[in-house]
Amino acid sequence: MSQAQRASWDEYFMSIAQVVATRSTCPRKFVGAVIVGSRTILSTGYNGSIRGMPHCSDVGHMMEDGHCVATIHAETNAILQAAKNGVVIAGATLYVTASPCWNCFKQVANAGLVRICYGEFYRDTRSFDVARQIGLELVHIPLPGVSLPAAPPLPPG
Fold it and tell me: Is-catalytic flag, 75?
């Protein structure tokens, strides 16, 4: 393979995030996250239920205000997995298939990550302004094409 065909590091890790998303257990949104430091994967996470609890894909959703609250988001799961295993993530980059929601963005910022690479925009623009204020880099990396299951249409309302 020539150098021109070789994936960039951002494309490489975003592709891995897409594969991680295939483990998601909430079919409303398949999201994968990979935390990387010095070109090394430190942690991964995907949308899923609390450990030991049934998955949305098995028992349905716990809906509040149009959101499934049974699911822990991919970014949070990646941060928690790193903490559980004693892995330092301060100064690292987060690759995530969808831009973080406001709550996940706050957690990513306070965990000391310095760069977020996201594949698709997801709902909340507040993080863009705050990221500029605190020096956290937000970068759009187009999803490289790993096939993910389609989310079902949202109910009206």
Answer: yes
